Batch of 4 targets.
Target 1
Amino acid sequence: MGKIIMQQFITMDGVIQAPGDLDEFEYGGWQRPYVGEEHLALIVEQAYAAEALLLGRKTYESFAATWPSATGMRGLADRMNCMPKFVASRSLSHAEWNATIVHGDAAEEAAKLKQEFSGDLLVVGSGDLAQTLMNHHLIDEYRLWVHPLILGRGQRLFREGIEMAAMRLMDSKTLSTGVAIHIYQPGN
């Protein structure tokens, strides 16, 4: 059985919206000053460790508009372009870029994918999908890349109304840019 791993770039005040997309909202692209070789090496490692991506529609559309023409980045572009992608969407009728649309109940379909895969399904961004997966206790690991930045507004990962959940810290490291990577698993 596979695991669903949620990787999020997040500010100190919990914002996950548009870390790299300059056009999405007034603070879009906030992550860019913190990206460097150290950061890239870890992202590449995590991408190669995952078997597939599980994405929400908005993140998929953003990625599909950018990654197919990307090259290099220590092999990250090649990995992103060749790995299977599953897109939770109620509105897409077709997908490209090695992607399969997951119609129907996103939680049920994600649970099925966990059964079908033996490796990790990596959720990146995908704020609405992340909410669904968290609400149905389908996340096996949280990889939170906490950036030393407060935005004060924007879409947050842990929104009002989410259930209380205890987490175990499995690993933690700090990059030279001040980004702290915390890896948690559900439980006491």
Note: The domain at 3-186 is CATH 3.40.430.10 (Dihydrofolate Reductase, subunit A).
Target 2
Amino acid sequence: MAAYKRILLKLSGESLMGESNYGIDTNRLNEYAEQIIEANALGVEVGIVIGGGNIFRGLQGVNKGFDRVKGDQMGMLATTINSIALHSAIESMGGKARVLTAIRMEPVGELYSKAKAIELMKQGFAVIIAGGTGNPFFTTDTASALRAVEIEADVLLKGTRVDGVYTADPEKDKTATRYDELTYEKAYKDDLHVMDLTAFTLLKENNMPVLVFDMNKKGNLKRIISGEKIGTLVKN
């Protein structure tokens, strides 16, 4: 019995690099695709938002002289490349997936709408929502928060390279301890950087819980959906 009926899975673009410094590691990509197929097989409706940091970040572009709007538009295209790659990986393994885009770019993907996303998820497709929010100055954290609220997900699952939220950066502070659960108020007060502030506010105001977990540990997504206590749950 699945613990959730519908989820929004946020994946980091940087995580797709695997052990490389740039681009897409096919082994990591296939591991993610396999876990998503497992989730669908349990009857869970899956929406996905992927970052683009393995290819291009808008703010990085600004630091190199790009106009911020153009830089963010390039970042949106980077998320689309990652989305197409994940779509291909899922289908190559026999799964069902579709790409919806925040800005019109057929035939790369269909234009996103809440109704279209929910219709496809109910048909058993993993719906990959590319292009961020379609607007500059918003991160894919904010895009994932927005889509989670829009598609009426039960939870936003933030897949990262660490196994939850800590009192401090565990890579820098060996005494840091992991939270099993905390409130949005405490996360904000203690400046724990769960997600950027715009995403954080949107989630809090719409009472959308977010679970931060290690997506790189194979099988974790299935364990969460099966009800195991993994990662850190942040909620009101």
Note: The mean pLDDT is 94.
Target 3
Amino acid sequence: MKDKKQLPLRSGVGIILLNDKNNVFVGRRIDNPKNSWQMPQGGVDQNEDFLQAARRELEEETSIKSVKIIKELDGWFQYDLPEYLLGKIWKGKYRGQKQKWFVMKFTGENDEINVKTKNPEFFEWKWIELAKLTDVAVHFKLDIYKKIKKELSFLGFN
């Protein structure tokens, strides 16, 4: 395997999905044996803009289509994979991700949400208070989730 520093970052998107109480959608990943949860996220396909990718990823992971776009957060958010995941995720091509994040409001009903999709990534989901976001995050995404909490509090979502 290449030296970690030589590997590029994968371009990705993340979705902060809020319900009518401003709680945040999180899913528990099928491939994560610990009690860690994450917001929907994924890669950007060729010739796809970031918002298109965010909508597609949200639908692929949760079946959700009923959303209103609130804001694209400024700048990039990035994380590196821990050593034990290098070479196992993304066929070993990347050391982590740099992501554009979008705040979206869920405008549908909870029965629209279905994580048992064609290629499921989550085996369960829930709404949590924004304050608890960093309590449930996997350790290598914790810094991103801290930044997101801070950004959302600036926007008035507490």
Note: Helices lie at 50-62, 133-136, 142-154.
Target 4
Amino acid sequence: MADKIRRPAGPTAAERFSARTRVLAGLLAFVMLGSLVTVTVMSFQDGDDSGAADAGTTQVAAATATVVATECPPHDKTADQVLLFEHQPPFCLDASMGYTAVFDTTEGEVRVALDTERTPNTANNFVVLADYGYYDDTLLFRLDPTIAIIQGGSPHTNDWSDRGPGYTIADEGGLFQRSGDGMLGPFTYEPGQLIMARSAGPNSSGAQFFFSSGPEVARLDGQGSYIVFGQTDAAGLAVLEQIMGLYELDPSSPYGGGPTRDVTVRSVTIVATEG
């Protein structure tokens, strides 16, 4: 399997696998990858509600009504929380500004510089959702050391069946093309990235995201369709490695395992700076 993640303070989650267990977990990861990160929006792509039934039974009351977002919410978190939209919100980024997403988690802070040049629409989507409080008090619900991902962004269900924000966004950042039942894209992956989850079809990202915490994420290079729209610094990567270090195998989990304690995103705050 993949090279082990080196951590100075004891063995990593990946290093705690037996060889046989790592093979089985790896196979499970790739079987689930068609939906990985499908995670977001199989239920609301082009009006398709085929996946909405499971999510709909557990969604929170605040999300029962859709909202038409016509204005850009402020970055100071004073806007009312919105979890479900009638359609994609407007473009709110200023080309003269840089944007950082600050994740306040129960394991520490992760600051992510958003890529507004290569992926402006993806970055804008995340910024607007964050400003509406979409990601606040949500779990990082999936850890997978075989591909070094930490997945979140599901306020309705806190799992990958989440119905999403009610819309999907267009692919961007390079050439995308169909390959069998999935997609091939232009991205490559390395530790410390913020990446959109998606279903197997085109233009299918919505709100769910994942962080990359180690070199094993390069296994996704063969697909390249998960849109990278941000990068954290060394301090943020250390927090991600710490979170991944909480992983333990759990045969009863739909993901094959998970963290030994809940990892919560208390809030995501957007910081805009000039130039």
Note: Confidence is low (pLDDT under 50) at residues 1-63.
